[in-house]
Amino acid sequence: MFTWINSLFLTLAVSGCVATGPTDVGPGIMRILGGAMVAAVPQGYCLDPKSLHSERGGAVVIGGRCAASRPVPAAAITISIGADGSSAVLKSGARVLTEWARSPGGRAALSRDGQPGSVVIRETLVADGAFLIRLEDRAVGPYWRAAIGLNGRLVMISVSAPEGGALSLAEGRKILSGVVETMRRANPAT
Length: 190
Description:
The structure is a single chain. By secondary structure, the chain is an alpha+beta fold. The protein has a single domain (3-186), classed as Protein Transport Mog1p, Chain A (3-Layer(aba) Sandwich), CATH 3.40.1000. The chain has four helices and eleven strands, in the order H-E-E-E-E-E-E-E-H-H-E-E-E-E-H. The protein has helices spanning 3-12, 94-102, 104-110, 169-186, and strands at residues 23-26, 29-32, 37-40, 45-47, 53-55, 58-65, 76-81, 119-127, 130-137, 141-150, 153-160. Strands 4, 5, 6, 7, 8, 9, 10 and 11 form an eight-stranded antiparallel sheet that branches. The protein has a three-stranded antiparallel sheet with strand order 1-2-3. Strand 9 and strand 10 (141-150) form a beta hairpin. The radius of gyration is 15 Å and the shape is globular. Mean pLDDT is 87; it is low at 1-21.
């Protein structure tokens, strides 16, 4: 039942991908996938062009606070963009997506080490048109993920504490909402 969802989310979670050249627009905005999409984070956060990887028509880029002196909480932000047409998975609805997230295959796809036993799904909900997952990963602790559809592509966003740092769930969810909104503004419907 979850085979197609698993393969889609695993594609978004790729780690050994081939780098592609971004078109930098600013520290928090980057044109990717040949200009088909824009990765964007809220003010005070930057994207790392060296972190950009793409494979099978999708891409992953990582960002964080631009500088310790910025008046925003330190956070690790990951934006994963699926291939063209990948947002169709969201039409399954919150119940099916929740079942997938709680399944062994879903937990494996969401975990940092690919092991279902490393992740516990604490909560799923729909807020402002985004499917949100509050989870706890053995590797990074509790954090938030969001799934949204932009221009036919599934976009997964995660916000967690930076390595060696701390980030409350409330702060993480606020940053996540900011990234979702920034991504929507940067990628208006075409």
